[in-house]
Amino acid sequence: MRILKSLITHLTDLVYPPLCLLCDTRLTETGTHICTPCLSGFTPIGKPHEQFSISGDIYLDTAWALFEFDESFQQLIHHLKYSRRRKPVLQVLDHYKDYIMDQLKGHAFDSVISIPLHPTKHRERGYNQVDDLTRWLSSRLGVDVGNQLVRRDRYTQTQTKLTALERQQNVEGAFSVKSEAALKGKHVLLVDDVLTTGATANAMAGILKSAGAKRIDLLTLSTPPHGNA
């Protein structure tokens, strides 16, 4: 059976050669999804995110957006969210592992939690696009995934075309926690794909702190230039 699967794979590659997700260059290494030039072409930001376009209290203690949201990274995120292409992001994470872990150095997290999707959105998409990143971080930080502790109670419209104020209003009351006892005194790392104004993550952080969490940090894959202005 293994030999047959290998033969089918080779025949498929002859007819439909694997191409780079971002530039359509033919891939020469098996198991890859992005070519080496594209993979090396992403721009790490290398410092915490410092400004948010939201009014009122800021509940996030520190936030990192790992890469600039240039055309290539925007394409990668689009595939992750809408084309069910999840493995390419894991290739990026593995390639930049040392850089990512260096950003988080010195932080003792108790739990890593994905920003939750509403159940309806989860069924529509079939998965939460940041769960793989959350599990990747969990395994390398040596802490538990705490996704079971939170939920999204209200289905919200997409934030893409909303202003900063509209984004903030759109997520008010959207989240809740399932177990306050499990969060009391904890240092939580929230995980999302893109940091724009910070409204969604800050709303989630506020709920977690109300439940007794001590510190809430955020890590996202990318942030648009001037997206938080």
Describe the structure using short key phrases.
two-stranded antiparallel sheet, single chain, five-stranded parallel beta sheet, 16% strand, Rossmann fold, 229 residues, alpha/beta, 2 domains
Separate helix tally:
9
Which class best fits the helix and strand makeup? alpha/beta
Summed up, the domain count is: 2
CATH topology of the largest domain: Rossmann fold
For this structure, the quaternary state is single chain
Let me know the average pLDDT: 88
Q: What's the shape?
A: globular
Biggest beta-sheet profile = 5 strands, parallel
Instruction: Determine the fraction of residues in helical runs and give it as a percent range.
Output: 25-40%
Straight-line N-to-C gap = 56 Å
User: Helix and strand string, N-terminal first?
Assistant: HHEHHHEHHEEHEEHE
The CATH top-level class label of the largest domain = Alpha Beta
Which runs of at least 5 residues are low in confidence (pLDDT < 50)?
6-15
CATH architecture of the largest domain: 3-Layer(aba) Sandwich
Share of β-strand residues: 15-25%
Rg from alpha-carbon coordinates: 19 Å
Would you give an account of this structure?
The chain has nine helices and seven strands, in the order ααβαααβααββαββαβ. The protein is of the alpha/beta class. The protein folds into two domains: 38 residues, no CATH class; 182 residues, 3-Layer(aba) Sandwich (Rossmann fold), CATH 3.40.50.2020. The chain has a five-stranded parallel β-sheet. Strands 4-5 form a two-stranded antiparallel sheet. It starts with a helix and ends in a 6-residue tail after the last strand.
